[in-house]
Amino acid sequence: MIELIEVTKRFGSETAVDRLSLRVEKGELCALVGTSGCGKSTTLRMINRLIEHSEGEIHLEGRQVREFDEQTLRRRIGYVIQSTGLFPHWTVARNIGLVPRLLRWPAPRIRERVEELMALLGLPVDSFADKYPHQLSGGQAQRVGVARALAADPDILLMDEPFGALDPITRESLQAELRDLQSRLHKTIVFVTHDMDEALGLADRLVVMKAGRIVQQGSPLELLRDPADDFVASMLGGDDRGLKEAALTRVSERMLPLSPRLIARARVPRDATLHQALAVMFREHADRLTVVDEDDMPVGELSLRRLVGARRDE
Amino acid sequence: MSESTFARCPAAWTLWRAPLIWCGLLLALAFGMAALEPLFRAVEPGSRQVIYPHAEFLTLLGRHLLVVGVAALLAVVIGVGAAVLVTRPAGRDFLPLLAQAASMGQTFPPVAVLALAVPVLGFGTWPIIVALLLYGLLPIVRNTLAGLQGIDPSVLEAARGMGMGGVPQLLQVELPLAAPVILAGIRTSVTINIATAALGATVGASNLGAPIISGIVNGNTAYVLQGAALIGLLALTVDSAFERCQRLLGRHGR
């Protein structure tokens, strides 16, 4: 659990973060979103004290971060940055084992942990352990970055635009992997990004920042349905935010049981999003879809009226 | 892929061939200079003595190496040490000062340093070591600064963010990453100083400069050639050895 209370950071006369209060619950992924220079990275870096805050209190599991020894604190917090920051003269295995080595784990335990993490992140030990960072693709390097951050099994993970430098396809697959990892590991994650789609897709709690302050926070759906002001609305994509909401809702949440009416020809999987269902309707020129399960068996139907959430389905 | 891996790890002999050949030639010449007497006789037919007689070439070579080595060692310790200090948070204020001081060191001609050092340190080996030290500092300081400042900031950010302390970060990350650039500076410094050390003979230091100075004073070209050839071979040996070390060090850097 991380708690920031009235935290302010000034650089000279400039106020980067202004009386910010934020609570990130255990096991929650909290995304800080905002335009460049809104103080989101500064906020993140104050948590592991790469930047010292000027005023206010930052608590980590009930203790102020200032009470910790800097290095002890950082070794307990995983840290992932956009440009990976892998040590170019160290092999992948050595890079991943950095924090356990700083913590003086015995060598066999480090080796075991490194292999475990490489397996977890889809990096076959045989082909990657002895590679150097310059031999990796961007996506592989960032996987190593994430593995390094997880090495000493920290409860907290700070991620500063971790996928910002990757191509869209690699980015999406790493986002999916992070979602998958998080569903198994339940870390407390603070995730900085300026990519709203990334934030919407990953976050349990979305925090929109502007000029060092929080404009609005809540679950992605709460923000999409009820943005506090025009800034939040435009950050969420303006009129497009309806589609983004559709992308966060599953077909199974809106479908109705199969009716005795003629079964619709166009089909959509049950676990597709409403956004995908809408695309299928558009493509098939249909206003009604048959919802199918994993084995392609019809399990329900979805009409356009039902999809858009019109009051009654008639 | 496999080809470039091969190119990075050549067999020891292939790697060290050039320095070993130069070293062999150097030692052969230092031992067997007398055997070349007919050649030098042809160069200097008017002189009675054509092989420098006052000391063994091997002794001169040893003293030459000693002077350059001591100066290089001091220059590395002082130069790298100073550059490391001014790139730490505590010493950052002195960074511009050090960069300027090192630049000024090289605008000073070594002869002038010798002239100034003799009244203080007397004749002999010490003035030349001081001159070489001052003269050799700049490339080392400049390259150490460039090497340390050229490290990808995200690497340092990661090192700090992972909870590495200042000293482990310096020893395990910064110096290894800056090493190829630092080594290039040491190489420049040492190679220049192998030639510059010959000036020591003018203030009474006995090294490979002695035959050259003696040859110039007595009008004996053979002496000059003997000193110059040995200095040239020594410079080639050391320079190519450094080049190999750089190649070994630079394997994984970018």
From TrEMBL, chain A:
Molecular function per GO: ABC-type quaternary ammonium compound transporting activity; ATP binding; ATP hydrolysis activity
InterPro entries to which the protein is assigned, alphabetical: AAA+_ATPase (IPR003593), ABC_transporter-like_ATP-bd (IPR003439), ABC_transporter-like_CS (IPR017871), CBS_dom (IPR000644), CBS_dom_sf (IPR046342), Gly-betaine_transp_ATP-bd (IPR005892), P-loop_NTPase (IPR027417)
UniProt subcellular location: Cell inner membrane
Domain called ABC transporter: residue spans: 2-236
Pfam families the record matches: ABC_tran
Keyword terms: ATP-binding, CBS domain, Cell inner membrane, Cell membrane, Membrane, Nucleotide-binding, Repeat, Transport
GO annotations of cellular component type: plasma membrane
Entry membrane topology: Peripheral membrane protein
Main location: membrane
Enzyme Commission no: 7.6.2.9
Domain CBS span(s) in chain numbering: 258-314
Reactions performed catalytically: a quaternary ammonium(out) + ATP + H2O = a quaternary ammonium(in) + ADP + phosphate + H(+)
GO terms classed as biological process: amino acid transport; glycine betaine transport
PANTHER family: GLYCINE BETAINE UPTAKE SYSTEM ATP-BINDING PROTEIN YEHX, OSMOPROTECTANT IMPORT ATP-BINDING PROTEIN OSMV
Oligomeric and partner information: The complex is probably composed of two ATP-binding proteins, two transmembrane proteins and a solute-binding protein.
Family: Belongs to the ABC transporter superfamily.
Listed NCBIfam families: proV (TIGR01186)
Protein name: Quaternary amine transport ATP-binding protein
Lineage: Bacteria, Pseudomonadati, Pseudomonadota, Gammaproteobacteria, Oceanospirillales
From TrEMBL, chain B:
Single Gene Ontology BP annotation: transmembrane transport
Swiss-Prot/TrEMBL keywords: Membrane, Transmembrane, Transmembrane helix, Transport
Pfam family, one: BPD_transp_1
SUPFAM superfamilies: MetI-like (SSF161098)
Membrane topology: Multi-pass membrane protein
Family stated for the protein in its record: Belongs to the binding-protein-dependent transport system permease family.
Protein's name according to its UniProt entry: Osmoprotectant transport system permease protein
Species this chain originates from: Halomonas campaniensis
